[in-house]
Amino acid sequence: MNQQHQDERTRIREATDRLLTGKATASNGSLTVVALAAEAGVHRMALLKRHVDLKNEFYERVRNETQQTPEAEKRLKATVTKLKQTIANQRAEIEDLRRQVTNLTLASAVLTCQIEPKPEAQTLPDNVVPIRSPES
Length: 136
Known about the structure:
By secondary structure, this protein is mostly helical.
């Protein structure tokens, strides 16, 4: 690790401590990666690309020390809940559509039978006697 990289890591750890104690100096004090980057004086992408371990450590400390759920996790949970509801609604809609297809197929079959003309009485050869009438 070069010196600049090590300095960034030190600043991020100090910024984490300040945010968790409520003594933010360069940010709004929220417990987010954006506030952490601002407090440490590093670009947000540095936390997301080069210092992922420190970002994860920050969120772990937020969870453990403040008994709060990180904002990103709250948004993800809300999204998951919304998507589960969407899936449930779609499953119900699919089931309803399947019932409608079945009912329409049956209705079509009934209407087709009613509309089709009855077959003409078959003419039988002279030597054949029908057992029952063709009408039944």
